[in-house]
Amino acid sequence: MKNFTYIILALLAAFFIISGCSKIADPANNGKIVASKTELKINERDSLVFVGATGTDTTSWSVIPAGFNYKTAKKNAALIAFTKAGSYTVTATHNGLLPASIVIKVSTDSVSNPSDTTTFVPLTGDQITLQAGYYKSAKSDSAGITFSAHTKNNYCSNGIFRFNASVDASNNYTINLLNIQEPKICRGTTDHPITSNGVILTKGSLQNGTYPIKVTLNGTDYTGHIVVTSATITFDWSYTTGVLITPKIINR
């Protein structure tokens, strides 16, 4: 993933030049997302920074509606582009700060297709492990469940794990494992398992109850339940192949 880190740093440097460091340093923007642009063309890349979040802790980035974007995140910064015109809400969540959102509008105009330089490798025959965790904001009652995805098979070490994850108002958890985005010319090794960026799924405070979870991999749906109590989060997940969840019990 080193090459992607370099790309992020380079584009963020350009972002600072274009937008001016004043936006990042402005106290009024603390706790907000600052973007290089809020109006884009299809496949045009956008640079975003969660102001106030540090570069040493993980920031989770999510997009609604899901399924029409590809992104690369590094700590409190992200690069994102969209494959379909529309209005998108990008949200950043960081432990110690309230979640922040920004609306990005994408026109019907387009720029160069990312398929010119990248390819999307299906997860055919792979086994995916979802690493689960618990998130609690230090400044609010916001809490949630975190997931990162890990492949068993090997890919280009510069690859990005693409997946969508969401939780609706009824606390139905849905994860769609898509594919691995790789450069057409791999600059790293080709024998590397891929780990996704983490995502935090939350709807305010995490209430006690039993909630359904569905994970889709290669067209197959895997279903189970998440049992939340005041002391633990338990995953009622019976699968031993295809999609695994670990650990099965998390202390709150």
Main sheet specs: 7 strands, mixed
Radius of gyration: 18 Å
Mean pLDDT, all residues: 82
Q: How many beta-strand elements? A: 19
Termini, distance in Å?
Answer: 31 Å
How do the SSEs run, as a string of H and E?
Answer: HHEEEEEEEEEEEEEEEEEEE
Portion of residues in beta strands equals over 45%
Ranges where pLDDT stays below 50 over 5 or more residues in a row are 1-22
* Backbone shape: globular
By DSSP (H or I, 4+ residues per run), the number of helices equals 2
What's the number of structural domains?
2
The helix/strand class is mainly beta
* Helix percent band: under 10%
Name a few traits of the molecule:
252 residues, mainly beta, Immunoglobulin-like, 7-stranded mixed sheet, 4-stranded antiparallel sheet, 2 helices, 19 strands, 50% strand, globular, disordered N terminus
Could you please describe the fold and organization of this structure?
The protein has 252 residues and is mostly beta strands. The protein folds into two domains: 2-116, Sandwich (Immunoglobulin-like); 120-251, no CATH class. It has two helices and 19 strands. The strands form four sheets. Strands 9, 12, 13, 15, 16, 17 and 19 form a seven-stranded mixed sheet that branches. A hairpin with a 2-residue loop joins strand 5 (69-74) and strand 6. The radius of gyration is 18 Å and the shape is globular. The two termini are 31 Å apart. The model is unreliable at 1-22 (pLDDT under 50). Residues 1-24 form the signal peptide. This is Lipoprotein. Keywords: Signal.
How would you summarize the topology of this molecule?
Blueprint: H1 2-19, H2 21-25, E1 33-35, E2 39-42, E3 46-50, E4 59-64, E5 69-74, E6 77-82, E7 86-94, E8 100-110, E9 118-122, E10 128-136, E11 143-151, E12 160-167, E13 173-183, E14 199-201, E15 209-217, E16 220-228, E17 232-236, E18 243-246, E19 249-251
Parallel strand pairs: 2-8, 10-18, 13-15
Antiparallel strand pairs: 1-3, 3-6, 4-7, 5-6, 7-8, 9-13, 10-11, 11-14, 12-13, 15-16, 16-17, 17-19
